[in-house]
Amino acid sequence: LMLLSPDAPVGADFAQWYGMADTVLDLEITPNRPDCLSMRGIAREFGAVLDSPPAPLPTADITEQGASIDSAATVSITEPALCPRYAARLIRNVKIGPSPQWLAQRVIAAGARPINNVVDITNLVMFETGQPLHAFDYDRIAKDASGRAAIIVRRATEGETITTLDDVERRLNPSNLLITDPSGPITLAGVMGAENTEVTDNTTTIFLEGAIFDSATTSRTSRGFALISEASLRYERGVDIEYTPTAIDRAAALMAQLAAGQVAPGMIDEYPRPYERPTLTLRESAVQRLIGEPIPIDVCAASLTKLDLEVSTSTPGTLAVVIPAFRPDLLREVDLIEEVLRLWGMERISPTLPTGNGHAGGLTSAQQLTRRVAATLRAAGLNETITLPFGNPRDYAALGMASGDGAELVELHNPMSADQSVLRSLLVPNLLSAVSLNLRQGTKDVQLFEIGDVFTTADGRKQPKEVQRVGAVLAGSFNPPGWNDPAVPLDFYDGKGIIELLVRELCVGRYRLVAAADGAWPFLQPGRSADIVMAGQTVGWLGEVHPRVLRFFAIDEPVTAFEFNLSAFLKAAQASRPFASPSRYPSIDFDVALVVDESVEAETLLQRIRTLGKKTPLFAVRLFDVYRGTGITPGKKSLAFSFSYRSTDRTLTAAEVEGVHHNLIEKLCKATEATIRA
Q1: Angle, vertex CA 31, rays to CA 27 and CA 34, nearest 5
Q2: 501: exposed, middle or buried (C-beta count within 10 Å: 0-12, 13-18, 19+)?
Q3: Helix, strand, coil % (nearest 5) of the chain?
Q4: What percent of the chain has pLDDT over 70?
Q5: Which 3 state secondary structure label does DSSP give 143?
Q6: What is the pTM of this model?
């Protein structure tokens, strides 16, 4: 419950009466516009768009008192490349306490948490100007021999530690930049202060810092320690080095006003690398050439002036534009043209067709075949998916291939998470994760494929090896169960059928599946896996995933998967299907059952039959039955084949076909030690 004052008007809008009525703009700023990470920058942008100059920030009216800051502190910068400017003010006799209501509300509206009047002032000024500030308890900074607080900006030493404001001790290395005193670190530069100099309720003297730190160094430090703050975000993208003293004066004036502080005369401003404003040239002819509309040069000058750029006319039709520090994104003439265009209005450009030399585009043969692979897989009932090109080393360890597909995994220097710390070397781990996710969401029938790049490396290789592959997973069944159509679980032979469909649609000549050797693919079940061989080269694998792997991915039903090298597959494919006129003459068919050892594969017999039948009128042969049981010796099996003989130019006689067929079977039995089943 909140007790209101007796004069509170009954029935009035509470937020309006209490001073909380406000409009908060929630903006998404692109990384190239650090100037828009401040109220000052956004006001400048709105003023340019609305052609209404924004009101400037209140002038810092400071009454300086007491001994100067030079008698109380010194600053030395040992790494000017990492800290090109360091400015500071000293405010004595401050009274730490809660912020006034208006200040606390503005800090909350900006997304921060009110702490006390001094810290809230530094946050407010940062939100207003884009310049991060840090307040030290001056009395807790170590002094030099002359009794002055000695501030040193330097790199950390290997193994040096700092306890930051979140009460965590962090081990440093030379890539980290520090603000230190003679006793050690007092701030992780641009990221977070240390607890040994933080402002407390007992603080009476404030050493106020406003500095510029190298963007890359701040980014590595903040992300390396997982300390992403409002200050580090601004330092990563760039802070206006020319505005630092103005921001410090604004904060010092507020501390005098709201914390009863006395600002010491003078400001420390170490500026070893002054900013030199570059000058860009803008030509009226270039504006018309790139935009396609004639924009007068005086309109261009007015637009750039609204953005606080210094514009002058050097020669007719040409502008000289001086770029201030708050616009680091303006590097070329085309950047200025972009600024002119967005203020002038893209909707004012007349649409035109681009000119060209009559070049006709099109897909390469490899692109056409790749699209045919995707279309064939979709026609087979699979859904195309796209997964991230990253992987989890634990997934490959679970597959029994800790180093990927015969090569080492490519580790990322700055991964987004531990689960995505390497580049994938196979497609199947991410596809199995997708199956697991779908099963958890209640989708039982999951048939997915992906065409994507995988990456491997090896000792001595400078760049990872990148290969495009096709992977697929089959779980559940293709059809939901019905009263007269039960669901049939997908297995190895469904995957085999899809591979054979691809082979047929892409007209692959030399193709076969060969039983995989034990341990060749440790994530597949022995006896239910095969190598995909094309043109005598193993290009991939097919099989049912091992239960051990399924348990790791939290999958509780069988999964069949295959994966192959797309480039090798396309090399064996043909862009067009060969055509042969069908024969008008009838065929003569024979059925033969052969008894062979269990170790003999039907594929071996089929290949031998096709080889022996090349110079005969053998038109087709197919396996139609496999039998084990009564009448068959244990360790043997019966394979029944159907032979079709046909000529393209005449009708064959039974006598000549019988002779050819008998001779073929005799040679087959001799070569394979098969016998004809009685």
Answers
A1: 75
A2: middle
A3: 30, 25, 45
A4: 98
A5: strand
A6: 0.60
